[in-house]
What we know:
The chain is of the alpha+beta class. 27% of the residues lie in helices and 37% in strands. The chain has helices at residues 2-30, 34-50, 61-64, 200-210; strands at 54-56, 59-60, 75-77, 88-92, 101-105, 110-117, 120-128, 135-139, 144-150, 155-164, 167-178, 189-193, 196-198, 215-217, 220-221. A hairpin with a 4-residue loop joins strand 9 (144-150) and strand 10. The longest helix is centred in the N-terminal third of the chain and has 29 residues, at 2-30. The chain is globular, with a radius of gyration of 21 Å. It starts with a helix and ends with a strand.
Amino acid sequence: MNMKRIFQKIIVVLLAAVLWILPIQSVQAAGMSYSKASQLYTEAQCQWIAHPRKVKITDDLRARSGWFGNDTGKKVDLHRPFCPDMSYWIRTDLSGDGVPEYLAVIPGGQLIILTIYKNKVKVLAVLQTTSIMPDVYYNRQNNTFTIATSITARLTSRNVYKIQKGKLYCLATLSDAIGQMNGYGYVPVNRYLNGKLVSKSKYNRYYKKYCKNMQIINWKGAQE
């Protein structure tokens, strides 16, 4: 009797796994091949290099955390983030539609986010970063991705994004700042949501929803 119950549980687990995988496979099948997407990105980048044009910085990750510095609106060369030897890039699906996005960054400079919408390369955002390389994470459960960066030695910012129908939406900015140790050895931590001080419980609700199950995506060097 016990063996029968164990066998039934195994069947249920296997069926659940199959049902969980099938939707992902269908999404991937509906998307564009990696090689085709790579070709489109390369063609667009070559075009921008041959005919340089400037674009505005759409957001400053420092200002988004309520900190110093705000270069939003400043014009920069579109091709610059993916041209120098010191640049880094990521090419992977960040929206769950089976089509890879393209991210490129210069340490201490701008981070550009590209996607392919209706078979054309589209600039989703040009973000101003800090002197420390940002980390990129993907949350498979809700198809969001997070750009985490150190604003200062004591302040870390996590900017949660979602891509839908060729548009980029910033869902939340979670920042935590480590304060100065007091006379009793206690080190306070202030938590911010979209630049505003919030309680630990409210911060944790957003963190659990967007950041708890995310996985890091490694940058690749310009020469790779």
